[in-house]
Amino acid sequence: QVRVAEFGGGLVQPGGSLRLSCVASGGDLGIGVMGWYRQVPGSPPEFLADITLNGVVNYDDSVKGRFTISRDTAKRTVYLQMNNLKPEDTAVYSCRLRFGEASFYWGRGTQVTVSS
Which pLDDT does position 5 carry in this prediction? Predict the structure, then answer.
């Protein structure tokens, strides 16, 4: 079974930084397309960034210029470097792995809290 797990969440002050990691394991399909989402209570998951198989990256305007997505394909790992964090960035951050059009795998999420 393909599994996805996120690491690196925690408490950070406004203006601080965190780097999240998402590790895929199991299966033999490689890294696929990997993206980051976040969710607060009462709202659906919000797209933040993803990276395609050929390395094209996409960002939501809310994080463009502050967040950077990258990957290590050999380790089947994608990262989200988050700088200049704001209180409104507080959410559960989840990683999604996609193979083709119909195979999706979600991690269980990691909590990020931005507060002074």
Answer: 97
pLDDT, residue 34, reads 94
E strand map for the chain: 3-7, 10-12, 18-25, 33-39, 46-51, 57-59, 67-72, 77-82, 91-99, 103-106, 110-114
For residue 31, pLDDT over 80 is answered with no
Inter-residue contact 51 to 69 (CB < 8 Å)? yes
Task: Name residue 91's beta-bridge partners.
Answer: 112
CA–CA gap between residue 105 and residue 64 (Å, rounded): 25
State the greatest distance between any 2 C-alpha atoms of the chain, in Å, as a whole number. Answer: 43
Which amino acid, residue 78? V
How far, in Å, are 29, 35, 41, 52, 93 from residue 80 at the CA level?
22, 9, 22, 14, 10
**Arithmetic mean of pLDDT over the chain:** 94
Residue 77: phi and psi, rounded to 5, are -130, 140
